[in-house]
Amino acid sequence: MQLLSFDLEDDYSLIGIHSTEEDYRLAYLLNSFLKFKLTRHKDHLDFQDSTAEFPLFEYKDELNFINYYLINNKYVALVDNQYKEGLFGGNYSTTSYLIPEKKKVDFFLKIEGCNNEDFIQNLVIELKKISQIITSYAIETTTLKSKENLIF
Question: Count of domains in the chain?
Answer without folding.
Answer: 1
